[in-house]
Write a structure and sequence with these properties.
A five-stranded mixed β-sheet has the order 1-5-4-3-2. The protein contains two helices and five strands. The longest helix is centred in the middle third of the chain and has 16 residues. The protein is an alpha+beta fold. Helix content is about 30%, strand content about 35%. The protein has a single domain, classed as RelE-like (YaeB-like fold, 2-Layer Sandwich).
């Protein structure tokens, strides 16, 4: 489902497999973060890093998790490439 911006969020298979290891309450908490990312794809992270294509990735700390994502505005997607526990 697309957010208010018209963007939708997508998870990489790595991020999806990580979510499967979490408790339902943790998955719900992260889902509550993913939807606002689709609503506001210009949201800056707490810091940036770069992928192998030198694309800037936003890294956002939410609770005990780091979410790494980038917005592909051409196709209106926020791509969540990594979720990890800190």
């Amino acid at each position: 489902m697309a957010g208010r911006s018209g963007h939708r969020f997508l998870l990489t298979s790595e991020a999806f497999r990580f979510l499967l290891t979490l408790r339902a309450s943790e998955r719900q908490m992260l889902d509550d973060v993913f939807e606002p990312l689709a609503d506001n794809p210009f949201l800056p992270g707490d810091y940036q890093e770069f992928d192998e294509a030198n694309r800037p990735l936003e890294v956002l700390l939410k609770g005990r998790f780091l979410l790494t994502f980038w917005a592909d505005h051409a196709v209106k997607e926020v791509r969540i490439v990594r979720v990890e526990r800190v």
